[in-house]
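Moderator note: this is an archived Q&A kept for reference. The question asked for a predicted structure of one protein chain; the sequence and the answer are reproduced below.
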Amino acid sequence: MSDISRSRINMILVRDMNTSTNDAAVRPGAVAVYGATGYTGRLIAAELVQMGIATVLAGRSRESLEQLAAELNGVPDVVAVALDDHAALKSLCAGVRTIVNAAGPFSATCEPIARAAVRAGTHYVDISGEHHAIQFVLNDLADGARTAGSALLPASAFYATLCDLLVGIAARRLERVDDIDLAYRVTDWIPSGAAFVNRLEGVGQPMIQFDRSVVTVERPPPTRSFDFGAPIGPQRVAMYPAPEIQTLPRHIDVGRIRSSMTTSTLVPGPLGRFTPQLARVTAAGLKRAATAKLVERVMAATSGGSRERVMNDPTRFDLVAHLSGPAGTCTASLSGPGIFDITGPIAARIAARTLDDDFDLTGPLSATEAVADPSAFLDALEDRGISYTIDRP
């Protein structure tokens, strides 16, 4: 890891870049976190500070950023900058080695921040799970990033990173991979009615899967049974557009990838079999305001609560991937707590990797392409409750 001056990072340098784009101090070896005052942004910033990395808290509200800096014992620098101030964003990026975008929705934030990073020759990391945002970073900015010397690491979060690393390790045990069938099971995720609607709407829209290339599936297939192994066993799952559809083919020569989610995660239990139909009806109905409100109320009632998220993340997750090829089959499994909380250490450690002296990669990257040792990365998360197994019968 690059040497960092503790005396320098222990000073709070508060700057409002909306009024001046020339005040940004250059912080070699530093990481900026945009959206630092959000739930996940706070976790990422705290991880970086704990790791001894010079950290810059960035976002729109200087008051909120200063408050967070105080909570982190006054270690991080603070920069207030608006997303539509492109000169200020570039100046922010130019002052650090890497910027982490933790501000959603990423359909609105990834383009201005990622473009600013590329213009400044700075590495870009985000925690997006939104396909259009990921596609933009991986495809539209690829050539410019290579020219500028910027590495682009979208989806450095719970979704994509854990699966990308796990399946990347498992794929090495097969000579060739023809098919990857992966599924998530998330429990104790109790969002509000509105979040249920958003989730269903996403499933009801055309989604992507992988069949020799990224393909759009206009009409999701019926639900099916997926074996999660002992002690969970077979579960009903529905097609789900996991971000790994875009990252895994970057480093695995695979023919087909299917990604799914347990229906019990997507809708109340008794409705699981009808998830695809509910998603299509919801997506169509949401075009009418009255229908959208009705669906929101129904889902809020059936979900048993109105929490969008709690401060102590109660979720648990299980990820299983079945790989098959000419040389046989392989099953990889990973489990852990906190789909929100685990994103903090994941994104922070991906960002920290870009500071290493031997990191000389540029352009779009998946987690497996970026980290020095995928197994070591996952092993380091053991203290966060992450466990995994890879079995080849």
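Archived answer notes: Residues 106-120 form the longest helix (15 residues).
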